[in-house]
Protein 1
Amino acid sequence: MKAIIPAAGLGTRFLPATKTIAKEMLPVLSKPTIQYVVEEALGAQADEVIIVNSEQKKSIEEYFSPNPDLVSMLDGANKSSYAREVEHAGSLPVSFVLQPEALGLGHAVMMASDNVLSAKDGAEPFYVLLGDVLVPDNTILPRMLEISKEHNGASVIAVYQVPHDQVNRFGVISGSAIEDDVWKVTGLVEKPPIEEAPTDLAIFGRYLLSPRIMELLATTAPGAGGEIQLTDAMIELLKTEEMYALVIDGSEGFDVGTIESWLTTSISLAMRDEKLRKTIFETFHHK
Ligand code: G1P
């Protein structure tokens, strides 16, 4: 099973750092954010992760390439735990496709079309993971996969309840609950004005999509914001295939899309580590 991670965005919110560092390479603790996302996909039965990259962000490619010189230098200097980490990052099954122009999320996903449609076991559902949210406990994709299997390989998206004044920042679903936390989706709308939003259930950034979406993306016209929207192709998909939504708890994800949320995520994950937690408490105790 394949997973696609779009990573060609500019990272404007992190300027000036992102003048030379890809947004996805910003660390949370010792790992770049994108490694969390890659490992999440691999931990949910993906066997290859395709990163949709831009020409300017070759550092991501370099990061996931082996570096035997660095590994042997670290081993020679008795720093084998670092050596293993470096080796690990360079051995993950990650490949790259280029998105020549930032024409939207749908366009980014479509760049990996050949990779998905030419799978050796025939085209099968694939994941899309947006890199602005980390799910370090990997609680979402395995449940989505289960729901898809229960419904003959149907598409499944993760959604969560957002405050009403924020629905216009997201893709929003309509449909009805078939279980406590599962909806059958009947409609979707990208970034609706609040008065046109059918529900407050917003697409979260984790998708398990039928390969048919790739054909539909090829004929999807620009939509909201003038961009080729994944949501618009999913609306087309709904005409011929079933789609389900897993309602997750927003706290399952850790946002890294803004300075504030990235910082909060770093602190939250640091608090899970006994040594770092102690350092934080000691540092800020008297301030
Ligand atoms: C994208 C999707 C949107 C989804 C959101 C989740 O929007 O188009 O449907 O709700 O991600 O973060 P973007 O944030 O790229 O504008």
Protein 2
Amino acid sequence: MTATATRVLVLNSGSSSVKYQLLDMRDGARLAVGLVERIGEETSRLAHTPLATGGDKRETEGPIADHEAALKAVAAELSADGLGLDSPELAAIGHRVVHGGLKFTEPTVIDDAVLQEIERLVPVAPLHNPANLTGIRTARALRPDLPQVAVFDTAFHTTMPEYAARYAIDVETADAHRIRRYGFHGTSHAYVSRKTAELLGKDPSEVNVIVLHLGNGASASAVAGGRCVDTSMGLTPLEGLVMGTRSGDIDPAVTFHLKRVAGMSEDDVDVLLNKKSGLVGLCGDNDMREIRRRIDEGDERARLAFDIYIHRLKKYIGAYTAVLGRVDAVAFTAGVGENAAPVRAAALAGLEEMGLAVDADLNTVRSGEPRLISPEDARVAAAVVPTDEELEIAQQTYALVSA
Ligand code: AMP
């Protein structure tokens, strides 16, 4: 890496999409952001915004066959603005990798052995790790000389004590198949818990925070002195909170029942719980804006879906208060957490005995900045802390390659 190399490209490769951001690590500025969608279809779409030049968003539609073609198209877009992958200013590429198992507790420079280990974890992350691997392999082929770093969604949760991470099932079976609670959204929980400490004017080691990452996927974590001690997602991102399309916690016997009594296949059950459950299963909509609109019109199904969502959230706030013993702040983040004031108000309503309260005026302030929404005299701070997983990935990547 040359002394002038201050840029990091962050890649988030999904099964049919690639999201990317190019950042300048001197100040964290976004130089370009974009998204390739529907890879492998006739109607692939690339949307690229060259923020560095102040240029308009450029959108192109047409077939993009695979991840290699997608990354090449991204590289061409970046080159058109003088930000190409061949630039000496590019220090590294940071990849979001969903599952790092127990081995990857830190961001890791990718070599062949690391690739093999990510591959070994495919059975516990069949939907995510293969796409992440394809993104990494493609990027390495394009710039074999450039450091590439894997930043794992599970890493922040590897500090969970064994009694929080283990399921109460037969130990030999669990160990043979690596069945345990890993947790996800770790990059967001790490970033938001640190930012919450900053908002309180304290060092992360001094504060206990409950982070509620409420996006289309949703998870809660209990963070004690900067270390995760419990989180709501498990072996897969299906466990825990009610989400946009996932059920969250459910009696596992429901799955036997669906197979034995409803005659569903393994795949049917998988699709039901991951794609047709949660808010969408309960009321047909997974967008909280639409659900709130329907509630305002008196829609009973939307109301019940909202109430189930909030009830689960409250249970986790209560559970993590007990796990932490002392809570300094509850932080709301991600699409719903950052934008849906009624969700925040409802989640903390009636928890005054636990020191939690929401100031109605502060709660409705719209801002992209971390902010408090609790009254000044509240024992526990309530906060809205916008997450920034790309910045966190870029910072972790840059810290590793410039060390
Ligand atoms: P994420 O996965 O973090 O991008 O969050 C996406 C979700 O955030 C959407 O499905 C919506 O439910 C929710 N969302 C985004 N904007 C708003 C808003 N202004 N009000 C309520 N919910 C929102």
Protein 3
Amino acid sequence: MAPMRVLVIGSGAREHALLMALRNDPKVEHLVIAPGNAGTAAVAEQREVDITSGPAVAALARDVAADLVVIGPEVPLVLGVADAVRAAGIACFGPSRDAARIEGSKAFAKDVMAAAGVRTARSEIVDSPADLDAALSRFGPDAGEAAWVVKDDGLAAGKGVVVTPDRAAARAHAAGLLDAGHPVLLESFLDGPELSLFCVVDGDTVVPLLPAQDFKRVGDGDAGPNTGGMGAYAPLPWLSREAAAGIVADIVKPVAAELVRRGSRFAGLLYAGVAMTSTGPAVVEFNCRFGDPETQAVLALLESPLGQLLHAAATGGLSEFGALRWRDSSAVTVVLAAENYPGRPRVGDVIVGAEGEAVLHAGTVLREDGAVVSSGGRVLSVVGVGDDLAAARAAAYRTLGSIRLPGSHFRTDIGLAAAEDKIRI
Ligand code: GLY
């Protein structure tokens, strides 16, 4: 295969992790990131682009002579940016607008899962305040379940979800979404530990990556509101190989096949969020892209060449790619968040100690004087790798200990329950 020039779209720690893994692929000769952040500027040519504009991304891909475009976030995918890149004759890793509805439209995802015979939470969409109270009575403790699960029916970067046993809190969240003109999705509560399984997919061909678990609540012990993700680890010592293979066979493959059957063929990264319930695995959600922050942990363990893998998926060669190779280690990533995140974050502070390959950047910018300054809620994602989870945790928290950002916070328990063998299915 000829050397590749790769353009990555996005600006988070997920995209920084993609760049670090792509950089290890001997066939990747040049990396471009748009728009990127202060950390990605050190490993790739940095360009400006409106990531929501298909014509703009396609024009940039032509300008930098990209052989492959990798689209990180869901918003451009749901808007059809991958279609525009492919229409310009450039290989693109990321699903079409049509297939990205698996994340962008919860109603579409539920319909696909029903047709594929895949277990998922019972759900109802509420789009009128007049229907809310009666609908709430059909879920949560009123229906014998542990909690209400109230979601924004659109894209909400993980922050549109409230899971609570308190009817007033569930109602307030739903009413707030309806007031803002967003339909509400009520779902039955799925018990059991959750996991994220990323699969590289091209039509019917499904290649799973290592399973991971993320931590969505802001505080230790899963306290406080949901965030975009405060940390993750991989692989999962509590999930057998057979159980992971079962999720691929019974959940991901049937959904990929159903998407092909209905003419919405998926090519890209299909992310299954799965709850290992007392009655078997059930889907919490599907996403149409790499998860953040799980990607930071998963890719730290990948030995196979990522550029060649994504190029194969984008050009019809995935079925010939062969089995993936992984480091026989564990990885943990811990997010350093700005003061007040997930509310309106404090920004503009100088960060000290954010250098090195273990520190992936998200909400950072380079100031004119060269200082690295915070510019978003999730600021950094620190990665530790070790022989086991305890060693990986120790490595991640050691690195975090040397970083200074006024008012910042992080969870201290990422991967802890798994390291102490306290997770049971
Ligand atoms: N880890 C959650 C997400 O990427 O949506």
